[in-house]
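Q: Given only this backbone (186 positions), what sequence would you predict?
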């Protein structure tokens, strides 16, 4: 229903400007109505914006064809799946952060430690190292090392095995350890 409503609206193209935005809003509205919920945890609109080139290609192909929309529906459902997966990833980060702060509510942390932990828990790219810590909060490498050592002693950071130089750390969220990926690992 959502895929067809969106397609029909953008094919009719009733306005000079804003048809895509309104079409994506219609698609999101149709999806939220099918869930019988006031809350929708994913957005097809956001995912379509991320996949704009593919979107325009399949839209053009569908509009210039013989009114066969099967390929459009397949693309749209795949787009919706990617949207749900992205939402799942986002909600997992939020949940991990909530669990982390719940588990460490009584732990005394400095302002620098709070800043860097929140940064990495929010998905900051790059590995958590003393060098990156020092650069991020503009302190000396020795101060960064002391901050990190304190967090290791408190059981918040876990040095990752197999590193002799440039040790990097994972954040203990609960029983699991969140390892921050390098940009090339993303």
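A: Predicted residues:
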């Amino acid at each position: 229903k959502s895929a067809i409503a969106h397609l029909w609206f953008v094919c009719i193209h009733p306005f000079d400007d804003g048809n895509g935005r309104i079409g994506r809003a219609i698609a999101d509205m149709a999806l939220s109505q099918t869930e019988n919920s006031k809350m929708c945890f994913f957005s097809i609109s956001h995912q379509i914006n991320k996949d704009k080139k593919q979107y325009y290609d399949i839209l053009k192909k569908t509009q210039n064809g013989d009114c066969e929309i099967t390929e459009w529906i397949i693309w749209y459902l795949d787009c919706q799946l990617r949207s749900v997966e992205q939402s799942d990833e986002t909600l997992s980060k939020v949940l991990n952060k909530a669990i982390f702060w719940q588990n460490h509510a009584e732990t005394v942390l400095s302002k620098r430690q709070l800043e860097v932990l929140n940064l990495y828990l929010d998905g900051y790219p790059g590995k958590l190292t003393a060098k990156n810590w020092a650069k991020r909060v503009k302190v000396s490498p020795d101060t960064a090392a002391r901050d990190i050592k304190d967090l290791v002693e408190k059981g918040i950071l876990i040095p990752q095995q197999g590193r002799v130089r440039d040790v990097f750390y994972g954040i203990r969220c609960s029983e699991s350890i969140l390892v921050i990926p390098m940009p090339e690992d993303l």
